[in-house]
Amino acid sequence: MTGPQIIFLAAAAVTLIAAIMVVTVPRLVHAGLWLILSLAGIAVLFIMLDNGFLAVVQVAIYIDAIAILIILAMMLTRAAMSDTEPQINRMWLASAFASLIIMAGLLWIVSQAPAASRGPLVDAEVGLDALGRALVDVDGFILPFEIASVLLVAALVGAILVAMTPARGD
Amino acid sequence: MSDPFTTIDQFIKNLLIGLGLEAEVTEVALNIVGAVVLGLLVGATAIILIWAERKLVARIQDRLGPNRVGPYGILQTIADGLKLVTKEVLIPQGADRYVFIMAPLIVVTGVIGIWAVMPLAPGLIGSDINVGLLYVIAVGAIGTLGIMMAGMSSNNKYALLGAFRTVAQMLSYTVPMILALLIPVMLAGSMGMSTIVEAQGSAWFIVLAPLAAIIFFISSIAEVGRAPFDLLEAESEIVAGFHIEYSGIAFGMFFVGEFIHAFTIAALFSVIFLGGWQGPAVESFPLLGLFYFILKTWFMYFVVIWVRSTLPRIRIDQINAFNWKFMTPLALVVFMVTAILDKLAVEAGFNRAAVLLAANAIIVLGTLFLLRAYATSQRRRLEVTERPQVQRSEAASD
Question: What is the CB neighbour count within 10 angstroms for residue B259?
Fold first, then answer.
């Protein structure tokens, strides 16, 4: 086994084990911490694919923003810090079935990819440039990009509305 | 001397290959050694940092500071470190054992990790990735996670309160910090740390973007959680905040981590806005670059200490109001104005520095005018309304 293979197997193992822990540990806060480890494993996989940009973005967005917000929300919830609830309820069979279907779909999509695209990725620098241009190109992804911005603005306005103290009588 | 660092690197590599090691193994081994040495050096700097800070703060407060252990008390930190190492690390009852132990490690890792992309001198950089600045933000924010873990695993309400404050403060101040960092990225045309330093050959970015520099400096002090933003460990309110239950070397790691973090933001400021290793005669003597970098970093560290020992701590609502109602809008305006003017000025052939400086000056004047108008209207409102009503409105805003 070569060096990269060992690193890949280790990172994949950590990612998967952490993912399993997320759905099995009894304490909600621990699940959040395992989720962070799992996301960090994916960042390592991005580095293995020679795409430092996606790896850094993975850490910045998923670990620094999303995972920390999830844990913060848990900390604010009543008694979530020491809650130990069973991780399985009566819907477990249905959800296992649903996730299997999603996994089968993903596997099918990956297997449909043309063989040429399975080689090494394009040079990260060129790919990054193209990504930036495609996001604001009329022929590219400007519509989804702008819709995402509208969604974020809506979320911001919503957050302000929720947090606003009702009329102070000024 | 063409490039001493590459020469040394080549020399060690050739030596090891000559001793019978494979080229690939040598490369990996040297990278690991380099990372360990860099991390240890940064960690060891803390010994001097703590001494210098205690001495300086003492001078500013008209005291002597440490002066018993060694000349000028310079060995005081080592004595304190030995004391911390020999003390027991207590884990409180009901604490989340593994999370509790991991928290200080994550805080220190997040800080030292930033140094991987710090350009110390021309050609002397741990890893010159093209998304260096994004990496700095991503890795730097991991410290927040460590502090949250410390707060929630300690089984102590003060620690938890400290963690809440940390998240409120650190996450909010990341917004103006990132907006301010976008401006040097635009000016340099790259997120790579070496490219940013090289782009400052003619003019440091503090000249081209003084407002961005100030916003970055303030928000990074808030990120470190130093006075006047040291609410997360306000002794008078929540005892010590997130590290209340920590003792021995576990506390020592938080302590050292905070000092290194302050030094790191000083280094970041000098790299991004003060030209890093740029200086006279650097082309012919690259080693001078290291000297310039260290000089600028220590100067910025002095400013951090100076701010810390001069300003009082501010309230949590003031911190967030200052961030969301002042820093973030200002950073947005500066960002947009710089983006448009930089593009137009370069195309129209104007002097880039003059245009950007003028724009910054106009923004400063506009901000001061708006602040003055706001303060006047507030004062008039307070003068008109009766006293009880004022108190009620203050209570509602708390």
Answer: 22
B235 has a pLDDT exceeding 80 = no
Q: What is the spatial distance between Cα B387 and Cα B398, in angstroms, rounded to a whole number?
A: 17
Q: Are B248 and B90 in contact (CB under 8 A)?
A: yes
Residue type, B234: A
CB of B167 less than 8 A from some CB of A: yes
B314 token code pair: 């501010």
The amino acid at residue B265 is I
Closest-CA residue of chain A to B28: A3
pLDDT tops 80 at residue B197: yes
**Of B175, B171, B170, nearest in space to B328 by CA:** B175
- Chain-chain contact of A60 with B152 (C-beta, under 8 angstroms): no
CA distance A82 to A95: 26
Q: What is the mean pLDDT of residues A16-26?
A: 86
Q: What does the pLDDT look like over B146-156, one tens digit per residue?
A: 888 888 887 77
Among the residues of chain B, which ranges form H helices?
4-18, 23-60, 76-86, 97-114, 132-140, 142-153, 157-188, 193-198, 205-208, 210-224, 235-238, 248-272, 286-310, 316-321, 328-348, 352-384, 387-397
Contact in structure between B331 and B209 (CB atoms under 8 Å): no
What secondary structure does DSSP assign to B50-92, as a single string?
HHHHHHHHHHHTT---S-SSSGGGTTHHHHHHHHHHHS-----
B124, β-bridge pairs: B121
Query: How confident is the model at residue A106, as a pLDDT?
Result: 92
For position A98, what pLDDT does the model report? 93
Q: For residue A114, how many other CB atoms are within 10 A of its CB? A: 6
User: Angle A107-A108-A113 (CA atoms, 0-180°, nearest 5)?
Assistant: 100
Contacts of B320 (CB under 8 A, 6+ apart): B168, B169, B172
Q: Which two tokens stand for residue B161?
A: 């309160």
Give B259-306 pLDDT, tens digit per residue. Answer: 888 889 999 999 888 887 887 777 777 778 888 888 888 898 899 888
What Rg, from alpha-carbon coordinates, does chain A have?
21
Nearest CB to B137 within list A60, A67, A128 = A60
Taking the C-alpha atoms of residue B298 and residue B287, their distance in angstroms, rounded to an integer, is 17
Over range A32-37, report the average pLDDT: 88
The A-side interface with B (CB below 8 A) comprises: 3, 29-30, 33, 36, 52-53, 56-57, 59-60, 63-64, 67-68, 71-72, 75, 81, 124-125, 128, 165, 168, 170
pLDDT band at B199 (very low <50, low <70, confident <90, very high): confident
